[in-house]
Specification:
This is Peptidoglycan DD-metalloendopeptidase family protein. Helix content is about 10%, strand content about 40%. The protein is mainly beta and about 400 residues long. The protein folds into three domains: about 1-130, no CATH class; about 145-305, Glucose Permease (Domain IIA) (Distorted Sandwich); about 320-405, SH3 type barrels (Roll), CATH 2.30.30. Strands 7, 8, 10, 11, 12, 13, 15, 16 and 21 form a nine-stranded antiparallel β-sheet that branches. Strands 1-2-3-4-5 form a five-stranded antiparallel β-sheet.
């Protein structure tokens, strides 16, 4: 049956319109419209080149409709950070007064999608794009329905914890992975698009059917699948590498994996991928992954458990909120206070690395903690208080809800 399915898929793709590799557009007015649209939603990133790269991925024979991409190239440089260009797909229609254009994170993209000529985009493409609409039903906030981008059962290293497309840029929507056989695979079925195809590398995007999209950078030996083709879960995308087709920097062969939800960069903090729940640190590239109470820090290996059964989050504590005791250098424990103040009596202690169950938080006395100054104090399940500066919760914001008035000490 496999050859038959492949032939049917090819016929469907051809019927949807000619597929092509992304090519720099020769239309100056389209280039200007796409550049302006990208700059309106994404200010020029530090070090980006002023000339936006505008490419055509698909066009109708009469050149009235275009599916393309707009990318902010970066200078190629060697740094200690992983920098990735900003890129967005767009739909555009030529009209008498100029191009009507919408990026894929613009609600108007959906309007244009419903107006494209019949058969120009495949039904698989339309289904995937429609799932990106803001009014679509969302999965539980922490559940992405996605695996990890390598073979199930294999273990890869998390070489860089949650970070932005350019290091400290927000949100922390990306994670770096490397190891195993180096083959990057689709974490779920999705429609593929490539931008900035150069020297055997590209910016690769998969648009899934559940409101999520994923992007990949630095890969080499890319799949030959044409833009707009739907790939099954586990399909080959490329191999980890140091590819910089649109510039940026890399710290060694790996894949820069990014998460998007309904057109917007999505923080990976607390998201579940491949059986693991990921937590961001207080700085870029920090953080950890957790499964069934087992914690893996940056540099550790993660087995891909995506067998359809996501484990329940480890939550023996009330509310399911917790932090890891992180005292300052030279100290072996964190003091738990009877009220949210360093001057309050000590009611208990938590050893370095010990999990602390958190119930709620208040804003109280500022404390110079491990990651800087904070006024967040967390109440523990034992009714004691600990400054957020001395517990690693995976976020620099409060993770537990605000304490009700009845539980506040004033």
């Amino acid at each position: 049956m496999k050859p038959f399915i492949s032939i049917i898929s090819l016929i469907s793709l051809l019927a949807a319109g000619p597929a092509m590799a992304a090519q720099a557009t020769q239309d100056d007015s389209l280039r200007l419209a796409a550049s302006r649209a990208l700059l309106r939603t994404q200010p020029l990133a530090s070090g980006s080149q002023m000339d936006t790269l505008v490419e055509t991925n698909r066009a109708t024979p009469d050149q009235v409709w275009v599916l393309g991409s707009a990318t902010q190239p970066l200078p190629t440089q060697m740094t200690g950070e992983d920098r990735v260009p900003v890129s967005r797909l767009f739909l555009a229609r030529r009209q008498a007064e100029g191009w009507q254009l919408a990026l894929d994170d613009d609600p108007r993209f959906a309007e244009l999608l419903e107006q494209v000529p019949a058969g120009w985009l495949s039904e698989a493409e339309k289904r995937a794009w429609r799932s990106q609409l803001a009014q679509s039903k969302r999965l539980a906030p922490e559940n992405t329905g996605l695996g990890l981008p390598w073979r199930a059962g294999a273990a890869w290293s998390m070489t860089g914890g949650p970070h932005g497309y350019s290091g400290e840029s927000q949100p922390y929507d990306s994670i770096d992975f490397a190891g195993g056989d180096g083959k990057v695979l689709a974490p779920q079925a999705g429609v593929i698009y490539k931008s900035c195809v150069r020297n055997g590398s590209a910016l690769v995007k998969l648009v899934h059917d559940n409101g999520y999209s994923t992007t990949y950078y630095h890969m080499i030996n890319l799949t030959s699948a044409p833009d707009g083709q739907r790939l099954d879960k586990g399909a080959y995308l490329g191999t980890i590498g140091n590819g910089l087709p649109c510039g940026g920097s890399t710290t060694g062969p790996h894949v820069h994996f990014s998460l998007i939800h309904q057109g917007q960069a999505e923080p990976v903090n607390r998201k579940r991928l491949g059986g693991w729940q990921f937590f961001a640190g207080n700085r870029a590239y920090q953080g950890y992954a957790q499964r069934d109470g087992n914690r893996v820090n940056v540099g550790g290996r993660l087995v891909h458990y995506h067998d359809g059964a996501e484990p329940a989050p480890p939550s023996p504590q009330p509310g399911g909120f917790s932090g890891v005791a992180t005292p300052k250098a030279g100290n072996s424990h964190v003091n738990l206070r009877t009220s949210p103040s360093l001057g309050a009596p000590i009611g208990g202690k938590a050893k370095r690395g010990e999990s602390v169950a958190l119930v709620c938080h208040v804003r109280a006395e500022p404390v110079d903690g491990v990651w800087g100054r904070t006024d967040i104090w967390n109440q523990t399940s034992a009714g004691l208080w600990v400054s957020d500066g001395f517990v690693d919760t995976g976020s620099n914001q409060a993770v537990a809800p605000l304490c009700p008035a009845s539980q506040r000490p004033w």
